[in-house]
Amino acid sequence: MATHNLLLLPGDGIGPEVATEVEKVAAWFGKAGIATFNTEKDLVGGAAYDAHKAAITDAAMARAQGADAVLFGAVGGPQWANVPYHARPEAGLLRLRKDMQLFANLRPAICYPALASASSLKPEIIEGLDIMIVRELTGGVYFGEPKEIVTLENGEQRAVDTQVYTTHEIERIARVAFDLARVRRNKVTSTEKHNVMRSGVLWKKVVTELHARDYKDVTLEHHLADACGMQLVRWPKQYDVIVCDNLFGDMLSDVAAMLTGSLGMLPSASLGAPDPATGKRKALYEPVHGSAPDIAGKGLANPLAMICSFGMALRYSFGLADAADLLDKAVAAVLADGVRTADIAAKGQNAVGTADMGDAVVKALSKAAH
Ligand code: NAD
Predict the structure, then answer these.
(1) Best mutation site among 107, 291, 340 for ligand 1 pocket (most ligand atoms within 8 Å of CB)
(2) Cβ partners under 8 Å of residue 282, min gap 6
(3) Is the pTM of this model over 0.90?
């Protein structure tokens, strides 16, 4: 049985609570003889600041670089509002993303049939939804230079952000999208604004050429990013994989996320380039939600986003697609059985706590495995 090295960075607030539930799930896979996880733990965010006066230490960074995958909880909270800027909790996550060169952000939006009524859209539009937004994470307008506010001679101020993409940056994110589509429903929708942006013209050209060269077997379509936003709320099931730049991806992934209901349900992955020697990618998995200080320490948090983030690690870092399918099946079964944490409970429905939800997933894993 293969052993995989996992670095767990629970972080702050509800991070440690939901991380505990992942440890239960990982232990189940070991006991079931499916895979063993050599799990190390370290501090990040406010917890790291309290211990070391840094949002993440060099030693923790070295562990992250050496692990097969990093599983990150959440960081932040009001008690760290006044720490020095360079050591603020978010700096830990930003350093992880930057030093590990995680350029591809994967955000699945899946609607479990049992939760279809929790969406703000009609159940028939949302039920069975399974789409993947692939967002470029390290380039574009959030990082392009110049980036400044200058005062003009007439006293007015002028703000500039610069949208920049190179062929290489577009091609590597498009490759991630095409490769993912091949193991899903074989369709990629590329989004940009080529009608008004030069970066959109290049984006469309590079994606089209790459498709013709290496991915003819995948269906490719192009949508303007604003039209894609509309289509996401009109008929989201038309999509399989959507690939977008950093800015449009930021918005479209949040739109797609809310189609499915609660923040407590949403996992994500951030991947780097494959190592030329081993083919392995640096990878960090994290729930989309934050540290939820309002419910932290109360045992109320929904651990499913964190558990499903571990599921993404099974699939994309550990090569354990069958185990990932099993976990997805277990989560779907728990929801179908009516087990709900408070954030996903309907009016009048009983809610369970964090640990009970984790236990229910472990129980459902045993059932699904037989
Ligand atoms: P949040 O995601 O922490 O919480 C938003 C709301 O959703 C809250 O009402 C919370 O109780 C609820 N919620 C979130 N996750 C839940 C879960 N798993 N189960 C049940 N309910 C859940 O966002 P926020 O309130 O804007 O931010 C709180 C703190 O988290 C801030 O310090 C913020 O900077 C930080 N934050 C961190 C990350 C991260 O670590 N990646 C992301 C977003 C926000």
Answers:
(1) 291
(2) 65, 100, 101, 102, 271, 272, 273
(3) yes
